[in-house]
Design goal:
This protein is about 5% helix and about 65% strand. It is globular.
Amino acid sequence: MPSAVKINLKSDLGPATSDTKIYNVSDYAVKWDGILGFASDSGNLFGLKTYFAYQDTVNGKLSVQSVVNTYTLGANIPFGSSLSLEANGTIGFLSTTIEDGLGDNTKKPMKYKTDLSPSIGADARMFIDASPWPLVVVPAASFRMVNAPSRTFSKFRVGSGANVSLDRGFFWMGVDYYNSADERFQVATDTVSDSVKAINIDENGLRVSFGIERNIWTDWFVIRVGGQKVIKQVDQSGAGMTYSVLTTNPEKNNYDSDLVSFGFGVNIEDKFKVDAVMEKDILFTGGSLLGREPDHVLSRISASYSF
């Protein structure tokens, strides 16, 4: 029997994640995810996460319905006191139905139903205690292969980081390399013979990231600040256009590639935990406090309870 059970429900108040953007699920889709975790007496941790997104849009005689389901199984297994492994695997399924009452150039109504091949992903990290230094070395690797309507996307990342213990907190810094391939198919509106055009976008990038977490005022309140700098080479070809550019991540656009993010958490007796991420441009604009149109002050909230 497990010695602990954790139930985690997360409310995402901000934009859809990058993966759901690829799936063509908008910010306003119905989204839900949940996590169930188990801890054995031997210290092994296991978790199962489910994610569901549904969207049904009607615009005149055009209707589009999309359903996304993903399932992630993960584990954290210690190997002695100085080494542990964390790994997870994900499989995702997408189904879309498109009905066009206006039809194609023959003026006949059209209906498309697509059940794509499953998308897959995997992540792995090792935690290596570098005693007597207050340091934990964390090599990591991840892989994604996503199949979406008129699009295929794959991404590989490998790197290493270090977690340094501080008084009432820790500091993190890491460096990793990634490669991604994005193939997009455009449907033309003129002739059937020119109905499919492929655009290929390849990226090779280097990312330096950091984070700091520390309890302040009291043991149950913690603040977190994190950031990253990405330098990447982007090569695009297809559809009569070819270009190559060296670029970096923007300072603020409210996505995962933001330069800086800020959050805080509450920990009650290591049982009830609440974590929140501030709207990511609040450090630049002050959010709605400086006269901007009202928006969320928090972009993400999560809560968990261990029995």
